[in-house]
Design brief:
alpha+beta, eight-stranded antiparallel beta sheet, two-stranded parallel ribbon
């Protein structure tokens, strides 16, 4: 670990000791759930190049979605627009499986596009971050880090993401998400957004999936924000991997998001689930997404 990584480790250890001494607050990303669960925030400075890229990516997402919502003159025109976006942001269109199911609504079709991310159980109760990153990277074909040849493991990803020791503090937000995913993929396509609106959440998810890339959601579940499928009561901070969308092709009145949950410590959570974009929005409102 580099000097900055060691410094972060010392800071997190100090925070952990203070929490144990002065409060009964539970640690972050507790897969078993706790009414006082919490998650650390670690803001990392961006370079001017990273800020420029983030703004450019945002513009490209909005421009592509504006074209999609307006409609194309042909399927070829639509495919070319999505392909141009995917190639610019290093997408892998061939990995997305798309199916069309006839709905009960007249003249409407449900369009379903799912990358097909495989679920991998998180190794420890606080490893939902590393496990979600593992699911994303493994789907994209990553087996070793292109910079230092390390094998892709939850432990190695936990080290890069700043996750605490097994069973301890979880993965900080925004932390090292962008740098970690860029490092393991050997590119610079990733961005992070705090508390997106429903339209922003949908647009970023849709364009990521169209380009063949899963994404990361950081959810805060409670009685106010709501719960992901399989959760109830208590408070949870939890990372999952988004990998698909489902919508009506003629009016977008249905906007559902498909995700993969690595939590095998609680019945009904592990594996693939659907949730509406409207229901996911308040869950990620206090943290956000990595796309």
């Amino acid at each position: 670990m580099n000097k900055s990584g060691k410094t972060v480790g010392v800071i997190l250890s100090t925070v952990l000791m203070l929490m144990c001494l002065f409060t009964s607050v539970a640690l972050a990303d507790n897969a078993l759930g706790n009414k006082h669960d919490s998650q650390p925030i670690l803001k990392t400075p961006q370079t001017q190049q990273e800020i420029k890229q983030e703004k450019e990516r945002e513009r490209d997402v909005e421009a592509l979605m504006a074209k999609i919502n307006k409609g194309f003159s042909s399927k070829t025109e639509e495919s070319e627009a999505i392909k141009a976006y995917a190639e610019k942001w290093k997408g892998k269109l061939n990995k997305v499986s798309t199916s069309i199911e006839q709905s009960m609504m007249p003249k409407s079709s449900i369009i379903t596009a799912i990358c097909g991310v495989q679920a991998y159980a998180q190794a420890y109760t606080n490893y939902c971050g590393p496990a979600s990153a593992y699911q994303l990277l493994y789907y994209l074909g990553v087996r070793n880090n292109p910079n230092d040849s390390r094998t892709i493991t939850q432990a190695n990803l936990a080290n890069d993401l700043g996750t605490g020791a097994p069973g301890g503090v979880g993965t900080p937000w925004e932390g090292y998400w962008v740098s970690t995913l860029n490092n393991w993929l050997g590119n610079s396509r990733w961005n992070l957004t705090w508390g997106p609106s429903t339209s922003s959440l949908w647009n970023k998810t849709y364009t990521n999936i169209a380009a063949g890339y899963p994404l990361i959601y950081d959810a805060h579940m409670n009685s106010t924000n709501g719960y992901l499928p399989g959760y109830s009561e208590d408070t949870w901070w939890h990372y999952v991997t988004g990998d698909g969308v489902r919508y009506y092709n003629d009016n977008y009145t249905m906007q559902d998001i498909h995700y993969v949950d690595p939590n095998n410590f609680r019945s009904g959570c592990f594996g693939a689930h659907w949730i509406s974009a409207a229901a996911l929005t308040p869950l990620v409102s206090e943290r956000g997404i990595v796309y």
